[in-house]
């Protein structure tokens, strides 16, 4: 691992030691800034003694500080997206840029240290960036604004506190800064490379003015940034106190021990569950906002090796290793669904994808205990195709809807692992999409309401999927009481979308159904996928229902809206009906306990028609009469007349009817069989 070296924008990069893991990422920095820096190495010699009680204290303190930072942001921010939807994250990193906390994902410190040497940082500094192509893969689209604060002990940088979140507007071609038809990043808003937003405690008012001047929501943007900067500065003070209390040597030894424990836990409890071998699977985004709908492929070739040799140059120990190869991923899209994933050896993507592996834990309770921090990075090797693909886009390719790629990759990894472990992974989910309305409120002022709505998670080999979950931890839909008091519409319904979960022995979770009646003319917007394709079922389970938006349902102007829309007109008095995706089912629906089907009908999650159609359950009585049941003999006869799912004869995955529409009539892909 290279040693720390000072650098500025004018430094001769050829004279600096280069980290091999970074070189293999083939970085492209359009600004010509230095792209070599020290990162990822240990802080103390391997085998250093450590007090296990102190490690617990340090780990608990890190989690507490992270939570305190997020709580402060939530209480002092102003925009609905940050304050109410909680679409933001905090993270704590050591001076080798390793993520120490594991409650959720976070951005990277790498671009800050790349451009600002540690030895030139001062207490009270706050760094800012949102430039996708200069974020080293940590920022996916321009509305994600990131602040980073160095932590000091005895005058030296010892750690970093960072926060980033999805903000309402940073300029660009449409309100919300996510134009669905963008063909370059320049249409998506103001891109800010790493800058010093606060200098030794003094805010850079000129930089803030430039950013707010480019935003349609300048007041909330300024307030949110102030909240994030102040919260991270507070977090930095808390960590400084930890170093003061126990000393740098003890704390850094504890940092190494925390990450070592994660590495060993995943090696022993997770990677050991995947048989050695090579497995291939792929899934697709369905549209990019520019070209006609088509299959935009994301492919993973997963290789599990139990006895990989040590790779000290890249920080990989000997032993079990996962090799994730993205070769076969489609070319860079014209529209904004690209994601810059190939920087720093895929460091961000490793931590983004690793939570999927937790599903291999022995129990759901154990799964919930496993954090994802930098300790998983040495166990995963990523191999990227050449520049010019969905995961290796070339500047200035657009990226605002990159969720279509990074969310799909979660499912691709789950699917390829499912092939390796005979399906003992959850079926698919699509738990985030952006919807919203904008226009003039009742007083004639401009407004923008953006919401991140979840969907159902996939059925599991031991349980049904969960209803209406969100991929961002602690995030949620906007409260009805808040939106109705602030925006010119009424929420007439917010509930579960009946029959949206994929049928299975274990049913997929349900998505939302939300009805919004506009009080004034407005414009509806949507950034969503899975409106043609569906969340796949596994091992005989059926796909869930896709995303759908209908304006004026049952009225004279009823029409379905494309899932990528910037300015669909909605008249005063009309209703917007939003139905989000249901999770895929797990296992043959004919194997589901009929009592559970009856329960689901009573609960309103499954219709009486679907009970017979999807599960072969013949109901008796009625839900209204409070005597709903099933006829056991008739149900047995009904099921006996249907073909049961067969691993030998049928596809392992069910992609739903929309797949055939984009695949030339094919009902499954070649990789869907085992």
UniProtKB/TrEMBL annotation:
InterPro entries tied to this protein: Hydantoinase_B, Oxoprolinase-like
TM stretches of this protein: none
Ranges of residues in domain Hydantoinase B/oxoprolinase: 51-589
Protein's UniProt name: Hydantoinase B/oxoprolinase family protein
Organism: Nocardioides zeicaulis
Classification lineage: Bacteria, Bacillati, Actinomycetota, Actinomycetes, Propionibacteriales
